[in-house]
Design brief:
heterodimer; A: about 180 residues; mainly alpha; about 10% strand; B: about 240 residues; alpha+beta; 434 Repressor (Amino-terminal Domain); 8 helices; 7 strands
């Protein structure tokens, strides 16, 4: 498979949007549907694929900023307004071509984003019933972080509420892929 | 300017991405403030002569892509907030464009927001007529390729730039392909950060013109972003 070359700037924007999308608990398909609710084309999946040259333009980014703001307000935590400038670096970059690379472990990912990334990657962790502590330990090892179990309590609960994870029983706080 | 006759006016309705529109005309205002012609900006972008003129023409579909916008920041030493809106905008604008021949029959475009749109302050920033700061009309006059806008920047003489380019030609600078922006930045090192590229462009044209100039430089190749490359003609066989 030939490597895809894009500008360093496009690569930066794609990875920045992806981190925020994962933190805001928005799937590729859900975001793609906002562009064309009648289409099955997974635009975000294409952009976030190292095998396709698809990239964002500013019209996409304007729409994404509005969707992110809407979702952030629903979640009611952290930053609530997103603008296109949030997806750009602080200044211009030298114009160089790089291999299109989707960060396997984005540096800025927090607990929610990390759990969503593992779910999106269909990580085998969730093939078995797991406690929140097991999930936390796994995420710490994956992302090289030192999160506490309490950091994941509400994150896992939200994943259950959005039917990404299922819980074994009311008195059995173990989770696996829904 | 004489008033155009009614039958000389043509009216068009255009749908355009708000962000693209904002970006195009913020760049245009920076260009005019720096005293660059559309052609001079096209040259530094490494694009065809009329590229910028076409982007600024509301009736044409040419746009600055994200990489071009990044390159423009490098040309003018700007940051993203200078050309990208600091708020989320509605997706598209419906524009009404009236075009007519102005002085010397140069096309003039009057751009108005559709009456159906509301709530935007976009045009307030773009108004060219300083006496009407809140006007919702943008008037763009198509530029002749060879126009030379007045500039506050440092316009070195043609001869001074030519002497410097001659030195670069003797040295190793042009043995590797260079983009117009690379040459411009090199000239800024020599003549200062306020260096205006007008005479540099004339010198480069002289050294690439096979008919009326001395073709010491070749500009047939383009880089992976489609930008023109200049290389010493005698080095061409090495690349």
């Amino acid at each position: 498979m030939a490597k895809i070359s894009i500008s360093e700037l496009h690569n930066y924007i794609i990875n920045t949007v992806r981190v925020i999308r994962l933190e805001l608990d928005i799937t590729q398909l859900a975001l793609s549907k906002k562009f064309d609710s009648l289409s099955d084309t997974n635009l975000i999946g294409l952009v976030e694929s190292e095998k396709t040259p698809t990239t964002y333009n500013d019209s996409h980014l304007n729409i994404i900023a509005k969707i992110f703001s809407e979702k952030a307000k629903q979640l009611g935590k952290g930053k609530s307004e997103y603008i296109i400038l949030d997806f750009y670096p602080s200044g211009p970059l030298s114009e160089i071509s790089v291999e299109k690379t989707i960060d396997s472990i984005p540096k800025n990912l927090q607990a929610t984003g990390t759990l969503n990334l593992l779910l999106e990657n269909k990580d085998p962790l969730f093939n078995e019933w797991r406690t929140v502590k097991e999930i936390t330990d796994y995420c710490n090892e994956f992302a090289g972080k030192e999160w506490k179990t309490t950091d994941f309590t509400s994150v896992v609960a939200r994943a259950e509420a959005t039917q990404k994870l299922q819980r074994l029983g009311e008195n059995e706080p173990k989770y696996k892929k829904a | 300017m004489a008033q155009p006759k009614r039958n000389q006016k043509t009216h068009s309705k255009i749908t355009i991405s708000t962000v693209e529109f904002y970006k195009i005309y913020m760049v245009m205002f920076h260009r005019l403030a720096s005293g660059y012609s559309a052609y001079e900006q096209s040259f530094l972008l490494g694009k065809t002569d009329l590229f910028v003129r076409d982007v600024e023409n509301p009736l044409k579909s040419k746009r600055y892509n994200i990489d071009d916008a990044n390159y423009i920041l490098l040309i003018y030493n700007l940051s993203w907030k200078d050309i990208i809106p600091a708020e989320a905008l509605q997706d598209n604008y419906q524009l009404e464009v009236t075009s007519y021949p102005g002085d010397k029959r140069i096309p003039v475009y009057e751009i108005r927001k559709s009456a159906k749109e509301s709530g935007s302050v976009l045009f307030r920033n773009f108004t060219l007529d300083k006496n009407e700061e809140k006007s919702e009309i943008l008037i763009v006059t198509e530029e002749d390729k060879h126009v030379e806008p007045a500039t506050q920047l440092f316009l070195s003489t043609y001869d001074d730039v030519k002497i410097y380019i001659d030195k670069l030609l003797i040295g190793i600078f042009f043995t590797e392909p260079k983009r117009a922006l690379d040459i411009f930045k090199q000239c800024q090192l020599k003549f200062g950060i306020t260096f205006h590229p007008r005479n540099m462009i004339k010198v480069l044209n002289f050294y690439t013109n096979k008919k009326s100039g001395v073709p010491k430089l070749d500009k047939e190749r383009r880089d992976e972003f489609g930008r023109m490359l200049f290389v010493n003609s005698s080095s061409m066989h090495l690349h």
